[in-house]
Design a protein that fits this description.
Radius of gyration: 17 Å
Shape: globular
Number of domains: 1
Structural class: alpha/beta
Strand order of the largest sheet: 1-2-4-3-5-6-7-8
CATH class: Alpha Beta
Order of helices and strands: EEEHHEHEHEHHEHHEH
Largest sheet: 8 strands, mixed
Helix content: 25-40%
Number of strands: 8
Distance between the termini: 21 Å
Strand content: 15-25%
Length: 264
């Protein structure tokens, strides 16, 4: 288990990530984990309890930070915008555009840094995440199906164009033209036929006691989009679970095994 830092051309800042590689020489399949609002590269590593399962299945897991950080990087006092809230897209509006290029960072700079230095198999990648990171995992997989063979999520922001978190972030990062927002909305992308036939299934776990369920996460919109588009979806509503890492730790082994079947 390692914590590393590298310079990103996309963000113009040093970016941190954590990396677990299983025993052996590799090359290993790679899972990217994208974390939620306020998180860093450390939350999943310390709270998810994922690495025993990853070792059993021979899968590496990388966890990037959720945004650029540092002196000169724009921020906002609110927890749901700015540092810690990159939303895994490339901002085009001031003051965010100079550094907040999280989509390009993930799909280009991070993958190049990982696969250039570690025994990872570029042909066997999956992506998963939680909340804002679940949104990121789904949209990046749908927007870059050539890069990822599998995708899953815990309590994702399923349709950010239709919730307050997403509308606030998209207006700030992408501007007032709402037509540009739909390219970063998993439910809208599936409705439009993104990556049709590319993923044999998408796995979602959602806690029924999640306080953000009705107003922010709205998995029923993703469910309806998949049904209309003919996209296989396994949506598991887990009774009594909230939005915390207790929820993630309870089902993380299922997700790792699910990805491993598609990557190994």
């Amino acid at each position: 288990m390692s914590y590393l830092q590298h310079d990103s051309a996309a963000t113009g800042t040093p970016m941190r990530f954590s990396l677990f590689t299983p025993p052996g020489e590799g090359p290993f399949p790679l899972l990217l984990w994208l974390s939620g609002l306020t998180c860093t590269e450390d939350n999943f590593t310390t709270k998810a309890g994922a690495y025993l399962a990853a070792a059993r299945h021979g899968v590496a897991i990388a966890c990037p930070d959720t945004s650029p950080r540092g002196e000169g990087v724009a921020d906002d006092p609110a927890y749901d915008l700015g540092q810690g809230a990159g939303f895994y897209l490339d901002a085009v509006e001031a003051p965010w555009a100079p550094h907040f290029a999280m989509e390009t960072y993930i799909v280009r700079d991070l993958l190049e840094a990982l696969e250039g230095a570690f025994p990872l198999d570029a042909a066997r990648r999956g992506i998963f995440g939680h909340s804002m990171g679940g949104h990121g995992a789904l949209t990046l997989a749908l927007r870059h199906p050539d890069l990822f063979r599998s995708t899953s999520a815990f309590a994702p922001i399923a349709s950010p164009t239709r919730c307050a978190w997403g509308r606030k972030a998209f207006a700030a990062y992408l501007g007032a033209d709402t037509s540009a927002w739909e390219a970063h909305d998993a439910a809208r992308l599936i409705e439009a036929g993104a990556a049709r036939g590319r993923f044999d299934d998408i796995l979602i776990d959602q806690g029924t006691a999640d306080t953000f369920l009705a107003d922010q996460l709205k998995p029923e919109l993703l469910e309806a989009a998949c049904a209309a588009a003919g996209q296989p979806l396994t949506l598991r509503r887990q009774a009594g679970y909230d939005h915390s890492y207790v929820f993630i730790a309870s089902f993380i082994e299922d997700h790792i095994a699910w990805h491993a079947r598609r990557l190994t």
